[in-house]
Design a protein that fits this description.
Helix content is 74%, strand content 0%. It has helices spanning 3-26, 28-45, 55-72, 74-82, 105-124, 127-137, 143-150, 154-175, 178-181.
C-alpha cells in the first residue's frame, strides 16, 4: 500500500471520530479547522510513526495536543467567553454517539434534547476531566490508551475518569430530566 493510500485510509477511518472528539473539547465552531490541522500533522508525521503504540492512540494524542494548544490560546478563551453553551450543530439530526439518523421526528427531538443537556455539562467539566471523559465515552479508548494519549499514569486516568463521571452524573441528576439521561 502506498503512503497516499495508507493516509487516505487513516483519514477516512478516523476523521469522523477525531472530529467528534474535538467537538466535545473545543466546540463545533473550532472542531472542523482543528480536525484539518490534526490530519495535516498526521500526514507529515506518518512516515515517522514507529508503531510503539496503537495508531488510534497516536492519532488521539496528536488531536489532544492540538486541542490543548487551542484551549490555551488567548483567542479561544476570548471566543469561549462570548459564545453560549448552545452552539449550533450542523449534524444536529444525527445521533452524536453513532452518527446515524433516528427514524422518527420524535426520537430526533428527544435525542437532541438529551445531547444538549449532556453536552452542556460535558463542556462545563474542567478540561482535565472533560478530556478523559470524552476519550473514554466518545473515543471508546481504554484507560491504558487514555494514559498513553495524555501521558498520564493509569491511576491518574482512573481518578480523573471517576471524578469527571461523578461530577457529570451529579450535574445531570440535578439539572436534567431523568428520562433525558437514563
Amino acid at each position: 500500500m502506498s503512503y497516499d493510500e495508507e493516509f487516505q485510509k487513516i483519514h477516512e477511518t478516523f476523521r469522523p471520530k477525531i472530529r467528534r472528539y474535538l467537538t466535545h473539547l473545543v466546540g463545533e465552531h473550532e472542531a472542523e479547522d482543528l480536525t484539518q490541522e490534526v490530519f495535516v500533522k498526521v500526514s507529515r508525521a506518518l512516515k515517522t510513526f514507529r508503531g510503539e503504540s496503537q495508531l488510534s492512540t497516536w492519532l488521539y494524542r496528536i488531536a489532544t495536543n492540538a486541542a490543548i494548544d487551542k484551549m490555551r490560546s488567548l483567542s479561544f478563551r476570548q471566543d469561549a467567553q462570548k459564545s453560549s453553551l448552545d452552539d449550533s450543530n450542523e449534524d444536529e439530526d444525527r445521533d452524536v454517539w453513532t452518527g446515524e439518523e433516528p427514524p422518527l421526528l420524535e426520537q430526533q427531538f428527544m435525542r437532541k434534547e438529551r445531547y444538549q443537556c449532556f453536552g452542556n455539562f460535558v463542556k462545563s467539566l474542567p478540561p482535565h476531566y472533560r478530556t478523559v471523559v470524552v476519550l473514554s465515552e466518545l473515543g471508546e479508548l481504554t484507560n491504558n490508551e487514555i494514559a498513553q494519549v495524555l501521558g498520564l499514569s493509569l491511576d491518574a486516568v482512573k481518578i480523573r475518569l471517576h471524578r469527571g463521571r461523578a461530577r457529570l452524573f451529579q450535574e445531570l441528576k440535578t439539572h436534567c430530566k431523568a428520562e433525558d439521561w437514563i
